[in-house]
Amino acid sequence: MNNLKSKRSARLIDMTRYLMENPHTLVPLTFFAERYSSAKSSISEDLTIVRQTFRDRGIGLLETIPGAAGGSKFIPYILKEEAEQFVNEIKQALNDQSRLLPGGYIYMADLLSRPYILRQIGRIIATQYLNHDIDAVMTVATKGIPIAQSIANLLNVPFVIARHDSRITDGSTISVNYVSGSNRRIEKMVLSKRSLPEGSNVLIVDDFLRGGGSAAGLSDLVKEFNCNVVGISFFAEGVYNGERKISADQYTSIFKINTENDKISVSEGNYDNKVYGYLDNKEN
Amino acid sequence: MNNLKSKRSARLIDMTRYLMENPHTLVPLTFFAERYSSAKSSISEDLTIVRQTFRDRGIGLLETIPGAAGGSKFIPYILKEEAEQFVNEIKQALNDQSRLLPGGYIYMADLLSRPYILRQIGRIIATQYLNHDIDAVMTVATKGIPIAQSIANLLNVPFVIARHDSRITDGSTISVNYVSGSNRRIEKMVLSKRSLPEGSNVLIVDDFLRGGGSAAGLSDLVKEFNCNVVGISFFAEGVYNGERKISADQYTSIFKINTENDKISVSEGNYDNKVYGYLDNKEN
């Protein structure tokens, strides 16, 4: 009995690790049964415990797909309460007036380089797309990369990086021209031809929305690859006087940052935590 | 009894998740005791099971620090066998001749954008520095960023990104000039002054080593910040005819890629898996 008990303990620990490292992946019951030389019925009980703990702790949904081709799939999310707590914490950090830079820009590189912060941003953005199939996360170099990577980790999909200048190591590229929203200049954006398979569903992310030129350019690039834009999400958006290149219903942002009159003032963006609507279908 | 048992199960699952998300962090026994409203003796038993499973599965070391100020610290590593299996897998992927680009360059952006591959690269590089204190991971934009972020996740430290051109959003910067190893041009590298506190121990990483100019530039930049270079690690190194700006004992690489005569040939780099030497002190 003691031996059995310790076996279950070890299974639960390793399963948790395995599921966390392989989110959005259907893991067949037989995979775990073989991995632990255990009966499927025991594995099934294990997964029920994992599912319940993940739910109780707000870690995510362990979706169970029944049948011969079935198994378990871990779908990470963040619940409203934890998201709000995090957003408040970062709002305070952003409100630090020493972050103000000439021209109304704001220093936030220190925040967007900390693993904990990037993980929570990733969870908040991923939660907004729980009902969507996403095949790739896309951004433009360089400040959006850490955000793209964090979301890609949680969705377990590749991330692709467009650039303003092509590099030798990109190989053949496809490029688009777009009008920068902020300074009305024509800019170019390139993406390696091999980096995005046709028909992919693409989530576009970036650190900051000003005029929306980059986001519109990225959208055009996605279409050039015969792919679909699932959504556009930003860490933060600024105040913009004029018409943006993307409309308010096309994107989400976690923060709104106003730096007018040389004062930083941060409020919540238009992101919405839709996890309950999603879970109504899945967990009950 | 059944209730007690299920409580332990839930604790083990949540603990595993918590430790994985907070590596290299001393978690006091009292933190878990309060989190689960459980006796310290139960938590202690839980941690023994977690420690043993992490070791059995090659996930990492759960270091136990005894005493009133003590607790547990999860130190992720990868064992030789898993590392070698991964290295072989990627070696085959890199050996695909269609990756060859004009000028002897090689396309590898698809590999360095997949969460699983980046995690394993991170584990291999982090394992080489198990005996070192690292406060920050540093790279130069843009292709080293995903590798830096992956290692930073495992070490739970920030990563800092130097650039060839400074951006408004960097604020004040410190810059160094360096001689590019490959084309002997004088280049510039800048880093935001706020991004690296004095006295930090810095691990430098990048995707590819050619002449070593960038790595030498990054080292100079670290010194300009009155910080220390702990080590320099690359995903891959090329064949270089001439003297590199950094010597062979200053860096590690996972792969050596030869593209002479328009043919890709990949072998293992000089990385060394030192986990056993480290564990001799800690696990026995």
From TrEMBL, chains A, B:
SUPFAM superfamilies from the xrefs?
Answer: PRTase-like, Winged helix' DNA-binding domain
User: Residue limits of the Phosphoribosyltransferase domain?
Assistant: 111-268
Q: Which InterPro entries match?
A: PRTase-like, PRTase_dom, Pur/Pyrimidine_PRTase, PuR_N, PurR_Bsub, WH-like_DNA-bd_sf, WH_DNA-bd_sf
GO molecular function ontology, one term from the record: DNA binding
Which parts of the sequence belong to the Bacterial purine repressor N-terminal domain? 7-76
Which of UniProt's keywords are assigned here?
DNA-binding, Transcription, Transcription regulation
Q: Would you kindly state one Gene Ontology biological process term found in this protein's UniProt entry?
A: negative regulation of purine nucleobase metabolic process
* Origin superkingdom: Bacteria
Its family? Belongs to the purine/pyrimidine phosphoribosyltransferase family. PurR subfamily.
Alphabetized NCBIfam families for the sequence: purR_Bsub
Assembly and binders: Homodimer.
Q: What is this protein called?
A: Pur operon repressor
